[in-house]
């Protein structure tokens, strides 16, 4: 087996910036992980192999079938019911039920700023105090001359795609509104001036029990599903 094939067998097609979080120990004490917008589970591959209790949600039923097959192969003890077809703005899991939430290349499909806010605060709701939130999303950081200084809306990028684009001020504002702490400085990769992808990694303070009413509209009560916490 080649070195690349061995790495792929172990880690799958994991986002390289999520791999960095693994290397830095950010998942060492966070064994209950939700991948919000999980697709076929590429970012869960190693976590499933390593014995993490993984959950996933995606709007694409075919993707959920794929992640269930992946989980059945890598972690047969995990229930297929951990992976559901649905929308991120209405998650079925209880408050504070996940020790880490991954949302890679998903938030930039928001319709508008209100939709972005509902999705973000719903993920924050299920994240436990002391938990980590990891997101990769499109931004105007490094493309201000092309996209303008102000973001928080859908834009056509130089690569021809249309995305909901954030800026640094918006990410810092949401960090404060959530009562979160930046785990790393906001980092952005500029792909030859065609698009910019930003990594946003937040910690939920241990004392974070306050209501999110100031950040999002209230939602009806949910029937809690199984999670890592009683």
Would you kindly provide a written description of the structure presented here, covering whatever features stand out?
The protein has 230 residues and is of the alpha/beta class. The protein has a domain of 117 residues: Rossmann fold. The protein is 28% helix and 24% strand. It has seven helices and ten strands. Strands 1, 2, 3, 4, 5, 8, 9 and 10 form an eight-stranded mixed beta sheet that branches. Strands 6-7 form a two-stranded antiparallel ribbon. β9 and β10 form a beta hairpin. The longest helix has 14 residues. The chain is globular and about 50 Å long.
Q: Nutshell version of this structure?
A:
By secondary structure, this protein is of the alpha/beta class. The protein is 28% helix and 24% strand.
Low-confidence stretches: 210-224
Distance between the termini: 43 Å
What is the number of beta strands? 10
| Strand content bin | 15-25%
What is the CATH homologous superfamily assignment of the domain at 87-203? Answer: Vaccinia Virus protein VP39
What is the succession of H and E elements? HHEHEHEEHEHEEHEEE
Structural class: alpha/beta
Sheet with most strands: 8 strands, mixed
The coarse silhouette is: globular
Q: Report the C-alpha radius of gyration, rounded.
A: 17 Å
Give the % helix.
25-40%
Mean pLDDT: 92
Tell me the number of helical segments per DSSP (H or I, 4 or more residues long). Answer: 7
């Amino acid at each position: 087996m080649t070195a690349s094939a061995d790495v792929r067998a172990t880690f799958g097609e994991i986002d390289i910036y999520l791999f960095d979080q693994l290397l830095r120990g950010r998942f060492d004490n966070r064994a209950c992980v939700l991948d919000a917008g999980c697709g076929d589970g590429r970012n869960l591959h190693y976590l499933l192999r390593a014995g993490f209790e993984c959950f996933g949600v995606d709007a694409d039923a075919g993707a959920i079938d794929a992640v269930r097959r992946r989980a059945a192969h890598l972690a047969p003890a995990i229930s297929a019911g951990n992976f559901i077809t649905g929308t991120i703005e209405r998650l079925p899991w209880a408050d504070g039920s996940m020790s880490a939430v991954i949302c890679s290349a998903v938030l930039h499909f928001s319709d508008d700023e209100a939709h972005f806010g509902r999705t973000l605060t719903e993920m924050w709701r299920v994240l436990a105090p002391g938990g980590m939130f990891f997101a990769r999303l499109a931004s105007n950081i490094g493309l201000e001359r092309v996209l303008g200084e102000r973001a928080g809306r859908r834009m056509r990028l130089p690569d021809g795609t249309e995305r909901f684009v954030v800026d640094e001020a918006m990410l810092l504002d949401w960090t404060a509104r959530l009562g979160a702490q930046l785990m790393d400085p906001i980092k952005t990769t500029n792909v030859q001036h065609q698009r910019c992808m930003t990594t946003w990694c937040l910690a939920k303070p241990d004392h974070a029990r306050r209501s999110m009413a100031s950040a999002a509209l209230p939602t009806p009560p949910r029937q809690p599903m199984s999670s890592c916490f009683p």
